[in-house]
Amino acid sequence: MAYRKTDKVTARLADTRRSILDAARGLVAEGGFAAVQMTEVAKKAGVATGTLYRYFSSKEALCRQVFREVSAREMGMLAEIASSDEPASERLVKVLRTFAGRAVRGRRLAYALLAEPLDVNLAEERAFFRRTHADIFARIIEDGIDDGELRRIDVRIAAACIAGAIPTALIGPLAPESHELDSNPDRTVEEIVNFCLAGAGVARASGKTRIKERRTTA
Amino acid sequence: MAYRKTDKVTARLADTRRSILDAARGLVAEGGFAAVQMTEVAKKAGVATGTLYRYFSSKEALCRQVFREVSAREMGMLAEIASSDEPASERLVKVLRTFAGRAVRGRRLAYALLAEPLDVNLAEERAFFRRTHADIFARIIEDGIDDGELRRIDVRIAAACIAGAIPTALIGPLAPESHELDSNPDRTVEEIVNFCLAGAGVARASGKTRIKERRTTA
DNA sequence: ACAAGGAATGAACCATGGTTCATGATCGAG
DNA sequence: CTCGATCATGAACCATGGTTCATTCCTTGT
Fold first, then answer.
1. Which residue spans of chain A are classified as CATH 1.10.10.60?
2. Which residues of A are less than 8 Å from B148 in CB distance?
3. CATH superfamily of B63-211
4. Core-most of A105, A129, B35, B121, by most CB within 10 Å?
């Protein structure tokens, strides 16, 4: 007979694959998908460029995989909260806080996932990611309406609004400057969450918002 | 003496410049900035590719100019409404309706301006465009708060939320499918506007104000 | 009409960066 | 140890699309 992969080899292959994915993910975390160049990935992973193509059929395939892995973690987190059995408004608050909070803390990665200019192939992946978000929001809002907790609105549109408002307010070019954000991310998150809740018709249980600053932009 | 541009020549030059810009704008309207290729622009404008470089120093310069011209019209429109002396909540409603309404009707162009993946140079231009939007929203909200019409919120964040929610809900991958949108764009617009108003704390006075929106569309 | 520019041309050029492939190293089985 | 098969290598290749520039065509003022 000829050749049959032994476990050790299989493991090594898996390792290499992992290290390629890790390298790519690292580049994304540093400079977004724009910074993913095959030569760089190879260098960082400690393999030759040609090797990349033994594990991924193309740059696109590699990037897709990275996108999936990174986004899966986020989605899972939100999905879990969403499926708890608390009242809808409570779940909504938690989901929004988690979404906004995680984005604010991992801004670079969040930017790559949500807002970075990227080409059509990856845009597809992002579309899925966003749709999933929106679905999670929509589901909760729908529950809330069914239970009479929320006023009747078009859940899909409200969900889309939320899915757009949060990233833009946090990480888009409109976002408060980084230092500002870093100095008090929780305030910002809270404010954004409030906007979305109000938009979705959640009667703001918490009475205190204590806001002082009110800045006119330039 | 040698040569001095005559008026006729100056006019012709201006014409050529215009036709180049128009050609580029046309391509943007059809396929976004991604569809702007110098050879295509030249063909469409009826000139040689080299000629383009007599009028614009680079592709980037051309695209920037196109972006500015297109976005200026939109911003002017909103700014005008915003500066009227109606009560803030009224202005806010009008501005949002106009923004959303125009985007929905010129979805392709709106996509190019607001959401299309584009490279950093143009992204700068877009950032300015968005910031201006947000400033307009912020100004109105601030007025509303000062007049006691709106509850106190962080105006910049609310403005950013609005600026993010509208495009996403309308033209992003989350948007209702086109046929759906086309069949009843006004409903969708109204629903989005409602979300934003609620988010900004406008007590929905709505006895349904039928507003004739201004069309100046290209 | 003609000389002296400016304007227009478009094929050639070039930079970027993804992909390939001939070559050599490594591995499994007999 | 040796053979056949797989894996790894990285320099060469290629496609895309923006930019250049030698050449030609037009305009202007005498």
1. 7-57
2. none
3. Tetracycline Repressor, domain 2 (1.10.357.10)
4. A129
Stretches in chain B below the pLDDT threshold 50: 205-218
Domain with CATH 1.10.357.10 in chain B: 63-211
Q: Please give the pLDDT value at position A218.
A: 33
The per-residue DSSP string of chain B comes to ------HHHHHHHHHHHHHHHHHHHHHHHHH-GGG--HHHHHHHHTS-HHHHHHH-SSHHHHHHHHHHHHHHHHHHHHHHHHTSSS-HHHHHHHHHHHHHHHHHHTHHHHHHHHTS---HHHHHHHHHHHHHHHHHHHHHHHHHHHTTSS----HHHHHHHHHHHHHHHHHSTTSPPHHHHHH-HHHHHHHHHHHHHHHHT-----S----PPP----
Over residues A107-126, mean pLDDT: 85
Assign domain B7-57 to a CATH class.
Answer: mainly alpha
- Cβ distance of B164 and A167 shorter than 8 Å: yes
Q: Which nucleotide is nearest to B9 (CA to C1')?
A: D27
State the nearest Cα–Cα gap between A143 and chain B, in angstroms: 18
Q: What is the pLDDT of residue A7?
A: 72
Q: Please indicate whether, in this complex, the C-beta atoms of A174 and B123 are within 8 angstroms of each other.
A: no
pLDDT the model gives residue B182: 65
Instruction: Tell me the CA–C1' distance in angstroms for B216 and C8.
Output: 36
